[in-house]
Amino acid sequence: MSTCTARTLTALSADAPLLDALGGEALSGRALSGRALSGEVHSVFERVVNLVTPDGWLITLAARTMDDAPNTVRVDEASWTEVRAGELFTAADGRLEIAGLTVDLRHANRWQPQLPPLVAGSCEPAVVTIDEVLGAVGVAGGMVAVGATAFEREQARLLQAHSAGLVAALRLGDAAAVAVHVRGLVGLGPGLTPSGDDFLTGLLLSAASVRRLLAPAVAAQVHRTTAVSAVTLTEAARGRVRQSLVDLLRAVANGNQPDVRTAARRVLVIGRTSGTDILSGVRAGLHLELLLRGSA
Predict the structure, then answer these.
(1) Which one of 21, 118, 170, 222 is most buried, counting C-beta atoms within 10 A?
(2) How confident is residue 35, by pLDDT bands cut at 50, 70 and 90?
(3) How far apart are CA 110 and CA 132, in angstroms?
(4) How far apart, in whole angstroms, are the C-alpha atoms of residue 282 and residue 203?
(5) By the 8 A CB rule, do 202 and 280 touch?
């Protein structure tokens, strides 16, 4: 039974293609015009609610303190403690309803991630800065190897082996080896977004020179991970990531190391180890860019 009090919430911002879909337009080939979108609550966290349609499309409702992200609506709400997994939702004519809650989408700001171009000269100091942040603030347990049990130690070993192997394969342009190591990383690690997936998200963001080689390999393996992580990886392969990661890349492109440090610390607070794992992927991608394009 729902515990929601009947009230209307305001959407502050939303992913532009998603906003079009929830307003009745088409998204990714789904013919939504002229009928309501419906589904159920997939999972609930304090600041995030994930919704899923019958065909598996995931939509995220985020609290006001969260950043904008693909397939996400950011709502003027502090938490989602009233919402329950399994509750039904409908969306039509610019409004989304879950039990007694109505989210008014009609005046939401349209968000689109805009990744800046990188130059090799900005990558080198950023790698040093991100190394410092990871060393000082990074959370052990994912890409930062640690293991209390034999299983955890083996998982850490595999994460290190496949991430190092992937970077080497990308540097050589070895598509077959890239596919092997991506398959090894996708779904590897605990949580809603496993560590291997988070590393790949960061790598897809920063390794622009090899994204055309990496993205298809990732897209071919997303069925091997969680539904939430599959959406994140699919969007990252298209160059679409959450705003805090866009801000980090902008700071790198501008060559402003204090801003890089601040933005990196903001990324680190994502999830338990996700921020550290994503930042490890960003760092690996920037280092790869430096190797491929030189330190001009």
Answers:
(1) 170
(2) low
(3) 35
(4) 5
(5) yes
